[in-house]
């Protein structure tokens, strides 16, 4: 009974966390919701074609940047725009599947009882060596 309560509580918590991660912020603080700002021309700036996230179409598009100023809805590459403003989202089932896969532990050296037993065996051999190296101490 306790395990079912724990599982239910864990699932509801994970669902709440995953939902919170998927919903983007809206409003003036979210740079990705701002329209592209071409900035202004200046010496030493970096003018050229840049990428911005179009919140209406939920896609990244290009615009011509003048070189200085503007807002932070400006990216040098399409991939960076997508990663920053349109991260991949997963269904709850996909999320659980990925969670299960990440929790699977690979079997290898040092795992389980065998690893612990070997360690004890090595310690015992070390003690035997010390006794044979110092026969005077072992006779006391």
Automatic annotation (TrEMBL):
Record has Signal as a keyword: yes
Pfam families in alphabetical order: Kunitz_BPTI
Gene3D superfamilies assigned: Pancreatic trypsin inhibitor Kunitz domain
Compositionally biased region (Basic residues): 104-128
Region (Disordered) residue spans: 28-47, 97-140
Gene Ontology molecular function: serine-type endopeptidase inhibitor activity
Name assigned to this protein: BPTI/Kunitz inhibitor domain-containing protein
Organism per entry: Amblyomma americanum
Top-rank taxon, per record: Eukaryota
Keyword tags: Signal
Residues of the BPTI/Kunitz inhibitor domain: 32-85
Signal peptide: 1-20
Compositional bias of kind Basic and acidic residues: 129-140
């Amino acid at each position: 009974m306790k395990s079912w309560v724990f599982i239910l509580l864990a699932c509801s918590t994970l669902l709440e966390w995953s939902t919170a991660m998927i919903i983007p912020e809206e409003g003036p603080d979210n740079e990705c919701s701002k329209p592209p700002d071409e900035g202004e021309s200046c010496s030493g700036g970096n003018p050229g074609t840049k990428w911005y996230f179009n919140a209406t179409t939920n896609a990244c598009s290009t615009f011509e940047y003048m070189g200085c100023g503007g807002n932070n809805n400006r990216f040098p590459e399409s991939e960076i725009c997508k990663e920053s403003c349109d991260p991949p989202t997963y269904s709850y089932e996909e999320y659980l599947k990925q969670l299960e896969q990440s929790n699977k532990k690979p079997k290898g050296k040092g795992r389980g009882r065998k690893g612990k037993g070997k360690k004890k065996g090595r310690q015992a051999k070390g003690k035997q060596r010390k006794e044979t190296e110092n026969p005077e101490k072992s006779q006391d």
